[in-house]
Design a protein that fits this description.
Layout lengths: L3 E5 H5 L17 E3 L1 H10 L4 H10 E3 L9 E3 L17 H6 L6 H5 L2 E6 L2 E6 L4 H9 L6 E4 L13 E3 L6 H4 L1 H12 L6 H15 L14 H16 L2 H12 L5 H17 L4 H13 L10 H37 L8 H21 L1 H6 L7 H23 L2 H11 L4 H13 L1
Parallel strand pairs: 1-6, 5-8
Antiparallel strand pairs: 1-7, 2-4, 3-4, 5-6
Helix pairs in contact: 6-17, 8-14, 9-10, 9-11, 9-15, 9-19, 12-13, 12-14, 13-15, 14-15, 15-17, 15-19
The protein binds iron/sulfur cluster.
The site of iron/sulfur cluster has 10 residues, from helix 6.
């Protein structure tokens, strides 16, 4: 059977920039090694006692874990891989070839997902070059069918297979539901904040019968539930409902100070775990520019007003550019992170809105962006600086915050069971930020 492969367009353009890269692939990541590959790594270094000892020393066994996670590479305290040499290249790869690399290193920064017989390839914004390609080009997040997966992915067999079972309505209808989410995000006649509120409404409409483990589609009830699902998707996409959500959402008053407090506590917590110099410099700069650093008055409401004024100024000066970053990264997220990984669609949309809010605060707090907001009018040079600040912000946040267990636990704690009107309310708060 032939495999249908789709790449997001930015990944057809991606080329590793190697020594010109401002980061190092593996720094700050958790690197699992699968069962089969564990044997291959030991075999590859068998003739080199020094490498064999080094490997033995830095592989942390995980015997009770899944076959794809039978060990982890123990990172150094500074977050760097112990196999990184002085030229920031992988010493194991250099001496023993590509075959020795664990799957995650071989495919990085590609994210390869298999839905049934279909394969999708996106990227992780934790790579600065992927972030540049994804955020800056207007057509970056268009899906593009390609004939040969192996041309773009070094190790296609390491694709993550999503469980899609006819008897499991949550995964079985996931592609249809995701297609509706993508269509809503593409409605660029509305601000992104309204589009996130529309996603929240859609998720809330499905909440009573479409979630992980639902029994609403069992047996004879199945046809009725499928009709209900289809009708609810159509209802939320109708022009009247979209207009009503946009209008009602515009009147929402936001508890800005507490949101700033929450977002900055996330940044501080991640900085405290020693995430490397680039991330620490960014967070320090953000806190200082919002006057929330140690020496400042730590007045959250004042910081909120600074944030809101700066955001409006940024939109006035560089609106099209800034909207593109957030539009592209939101579409990218829907492709890259399957919603079926969360127990309910509403919990997924909540996390998405939280992520957008956190990124907006960090971008607006970026010292270079703060300076750009003081300029009387935009120039080609200022746009370039803004692009650079955006790539740095999205990349460092993807690498050091978004997948961090502490951030995910916080998101889970905030969302609770992730169901009902209360969760929708929280989605709207972060969407409005
Ligand atoms: S982070 Fe991306 S661009 Fe940089 S070295 Fe790794 S793959 Fe190449």
């Amino acid at each position: 059977m032939s495999t249908e492969t789709t790449l997001l367009r930015y990944m057809t353009r991606f080329r590793c920039i190697a020594e010109r890269c401002e980061d190092t692939c593996c720094t700050g990541l958790k690197v699992p090694v699968g069962e089969a590959h564990l044997h291959r790594m030991h075999e590859a270094v068998a003739n080199s006692p020094e490498d064999a000892a080094h490997l033995h020393q830095h592989l942390q066994p995980n015997p009770g874990g899944a076959p794809s996670e039978r060990a982890f590479i123990q990172m150094r305290p500074d977050g760097h891989c112990p196999f990184l040499d002085t030229e920031r290249l992988c010493a194991l790869q250099r001496r023993h070839g590509d075959a020795v690399l664990p799957d995650i290193c071989a495919n990085f920064p590609r994210v390869v997902t298999k839905w049934g017989e279909r394969v999708e390839v996106s990227g992780t914004l934790a790579c600065p070059e992927v972030a540049r390609q994804c955020l800056l080009e207007e057509d970056a997040v268009e899906p593009e069918p390609v004939p040969a997966l192996s041309r773009y992915v070094p190790r296609p067999e390491a694709a993550r297979a999503l469980p899609v079972h006819e008897k499991d309505a949550y995964t079985f209808h996931a592609e249809t539901v995701r297609a509706a989410l993508l269509r809503l995000v593409r409605r660029r006649e509305y601000p992104l904040a309204s589009r996130l509120a529309m996603l929240g409404q859609l998720a809330h409409g499905l909440d009573g019968f479409y979630f992980r483990g639902t029994e609403s589609f069992q047996g004879e009830a199945r046809t009725g539930a499928e009709v209900r699902l289809s009708e609810e998707l159509q209802r939320v996409e109708s022009p009247e409902v979209l207009e009503a959500v946009h209008r009602d959402f515009g009147g929402l008053t936001l508890p800005g100070g507490p949101c700033v407090g929450l977002f900055t506590s996330v940044l501080r917590a991640r900085m405290a775990t020693g995430r490397g110099e680039r991330f620490t410099t960014l967070v320090r700069g953000v806190l200082e520019s919002l006057r929330l650093d140690e020496g400042g008055p730590a007045d959250l409401d004042t910081a909120w007003r600074t944030y809101a004024e700066r955001w409006h100024r940024l939109e006035a000066l560089h609106g099209e550019r800034v909207h593109r970053y957030f539009h592209n990264s939101t579409l990218h997220h829907l492709w890259r992170a399957p919603f079926t990984d969360t127990p309910s669609l509403l919990a997924y949309v909540f996390r998405l809105a939280l992520r957008v809010g956190l990124l907006r605060l960090t971008l607006v707090g970026h010292p270079r962006v703060a300076e750009l907001c003081l300029e009387p009018s935009p120039t080609a040079g200022s746009r370039e600086q803004l692009d650079r600040a955006a790539v740095e912000t999205f990349q460092l946040m993807a690498k050091h915050v978004e997948q961090a267990p502490g951030f995910l636990t916080l998101a889970e704690g905030l969302v609770g069971e992730g169901r009902g009107a209360e969760t929708l309310g929280k989605v709207l708060v972060f969407a409005a930020f």
